[in-house]
Specification:
Layout (H helix, E strand, L loop, with lengths): L1 E7 L2 E6 L9 E10 L2 H8 L9 E2 L3 E9 L11 E4 L2 E2 L5 H4 L10 E2 L11 E5 L3 E3 L4 H4 L2 H14 L5 E5 L3 H12 L3 E5 L3 H9 L3 E2 L8 E6 L4 H9 L1 E9 L11 H7 L2 E4 L7 H11 L9 E6 L3 H8 L5 E5 L8
Parallel strand pairs: 11-12, 11-14, 12-13, 14-15, 15-16, 17-18
Antiparallel strand pairs: 1-2, 1-4, 3-5, 3-9, 3-18, 5-6, 6-10, 7-8
Helix pairs in contact: 4-5, 4-9
Bound molecules: zinc ion (2 copies).
One zinc ion binds next to loops.
Length: 327
């Protein structure tokens, strides 16, 4: 099968590799398309190290089941699915407490097991969710589940919020909050992205604004974005952090106590509830997250997709597609 292979940081070669075979309890998917996000760019640039080279990246994928392993009904062949790319062990302490997102033996598609930028991909059957819908919506199911899980962990959603950083994840956060009737303001260094967020129903926050919000979502998690978040947080408000920067944040106990702030981190989603509810919502068209997608590439142009996705106003996806009995 054809796959986009990361051969060294920043360089992708499209080449043939052997087809994976589904093992017991697994399904094989003829991949239809894959969305790109910040984590993929971290792998691409070499900031995030992967276990082998060359490496197949990508995790926000949909496709059609074309083979099943032992213990999976053959009736699943031909099913259109999105994949839940973080495969939990269900045996460790966090898993047993329902936090599969924090599984200590987590296997992540495109991070430490084969990625989705290939014509075929194998995952456990319970991590392939049946769904229908347009490709642009389907490639957004995984990242929008990250957003919805974060809001679930937060509890009640306030009337207004500031989203700091409107890359792919920030745009999806904006879209979900606007959809829930929240008045959303956005801040980003890239004016194209702010303009795009405005088209989704958000308000641009100008640099001199001193407006305060009960909720600030920091999708970057860097010192500068946290500075912005703190500058605009109401007393008693919450900062929801989704970004995964490793630098220390400019947050002192004095600020935390004086603002009586809550800082809430949120990582991916917990199996199965978060994916189940998102798949239901996107599958019947109540939420159309594909509205954040602006750029599309063929698998053979994966290099260009990765080179340009960071500067695209919206989200980038790569069409994969392979002839199957069904599609
Ligand atoms: Zn992602
Ligand atoms: Zn586990």
């Amino acid at each position: 099968m054809k796959a986009a292979l990361l051969v060294e940081p920043g360089r992708i070669v499209v080449d043939e590799i052997p087809d994976p075979e589904p093992g017991s309890g697994e399904v094989r998917i003829a991949v239809g398309g894959v969305g790109l996000c910040g984590s993929d760019l971290s792998v691409f640039s070499g900031r995030w190290s992967v276990p082998a080279s060359p490496w197949v990246m990508g995790h926000e994928a949909f496709g059609t089941i074309d083979a099943v392993g032992d213990g999976v009904s053959t009736e699943r062949v031909g099913e259109r699915v999105v994949i839940e790319p973080n495969v939990a062990c269900f045996a460790c302490d966090p898993c047993r407490r329902g936090w599969t997102s924090a599984c200590v033996a987590r296997q992540s598609v495109g991070m430490n097991r084969q990625g989705a930028l290939a014509e075929r991909l194998v995952v456990p059957g319970r991590f392939a969710w049946p769904i229908t819908g347009a490709p642009k919506d389907l490639v957004c199911v995984e990242p929008v589940t990250v957003v919805r899980a974060a809001l679930r962990r937060l509890g009640a959603t306030p009337d207004s919020a500031l989203v700091v950083g409107v890359g792919a994840q920030g745009l999806l956060m904006t879209l979900v909050l606007v959809d829930r009737g929240v008045e959303v303001h956005v801040a980003d260094v890239n004016p194209d992205r702010v303009a795009f967020a405005e088209r989704l129903g958000a308000h641009a926050m100008d640099g001199g604004s001193d407006r305060l919000f009960p909720l600030v979502v920091d999708t970057v998690g860097a010192p500068a974005s946290m500075e912005t978040a703190l500058d605009h947080l109401e007393v008693g408000g919450t900062i929801l952090v989704l970004g995964l920067d490793s630098r220390p944040l400019p947050l002192t106990a004095q600020t935390l106590v004086r603002r009586q702030a809550t800082v809430r981190g949120s990582l991916t989603y917990d199996h199965p509830g978060d994916f189940e509810s998102t798949v239901a919502l996107v599958g019947d068209g109540r939420l159309q997250p594909g509205r954040v997608v602006t750029d599309e590439y063929a698998l053979t142009d994966a290099q260009a997709a990765f080179d340009r996705s960071a500067s695209a106003p919206g989200k980038t996806w790569i069409r994969v597609g392979v002839a199957t009995a069904e599609s």
